[in-house]
Specification:
Layout: H1 8-24, H2 27-34, H3 38-59, H4 62-65, H5 76-118, E1 127-135, E2 144-147, E3 160-165, E4 168-178, E5 183-187, E6 194-200, E7 211-218, E8 223-229, E9 239-242, E10 255-265, E11 268-278, E12 288-293
Antiparallel strand pairs: 1-2, 1-12, 2-5, 3-4, 3-12, 4-5, 6-7, 6-9, 7-8, 8-11, 9-10, 10-11
Helix pairs in contact: 1-3
Length: 296
Amino acid sequence: MKRSFLTPGRWLAAVVLLLLVASLLPGSVAQGVASRPRWIVEALLGPVTGQFTSVAAALRSPQRLRMTPDPHRMSTEDLIEAYQQLQDELHRANQLIARYEYEMDRAAEVIEQLSRIRGQSGLQGVTLVSARVLAPPANLRVPVLTINQGADQGVQEGMAVVHAGEAGLSLVGQVVDAGPRSAGVKLITSESVELAVRVGPAPPDASPRQIEAWIRWDPEAQAFIAEVQANQGVQVGDVARLADDYWPREAQGFLVGLVSEVEPDPRDPLSMRRVVIRTTHELARLARVTVLVPAS
């Protein structure tokens, strides 16, 4: 069989030779050659480039050439699958939005609590360490909260722990042990706790009527109990605030509870009154508290 003289290899050799000759020509001559009609160059290179084009087309993945499918040409099954994928993405987006909104609400709550506590008189120089409750009390008779702040944040044994709620700034308890990054807080609602308090009218009542009393936690009544003289005038709705020298100075004046009942003392109903004082929060169920870290 007679072979063709103009094989692709010979075409390529001819093109290379022409380019080499063109590179040796003067600039004006080379410019004139380059300005010839483009079809001449394409005709010369066509047999060679055609070989490479066919190889490239064979190797190119059809998947990469696929465009976004036209919904009008998609099958019902593909449309249903695409719709379900969009629904899943929307569900995940809504979950993220809900999570961010929750975190923002929690941050706003912490800021509000710290602002309320900072407004309390007598806290100049005191650092407010906001803490999250990691675990509720295991023993309800001597309840201890575990918080996520410890010695690394300046928390030490004996420091007072408080909470800022709608009813005011409440005393929660006292740090009884502190690790590097966590601490235990013994609540005032422990059966062994006795507190000295000052009982008087709640704001905005400006009456000077106030008494000092010792109160103890009664696990059965789930309240503090005090015995006072009948003529001391304690009334339902009065507030009890800490006035105990055994507690840190910065904790003085924090709310312990509200008077919910005043009744004759069974042991001496004529001259004594049994006063029931309840906390404004269920302390064992708090999610956040604040540790008062005094200036060193």
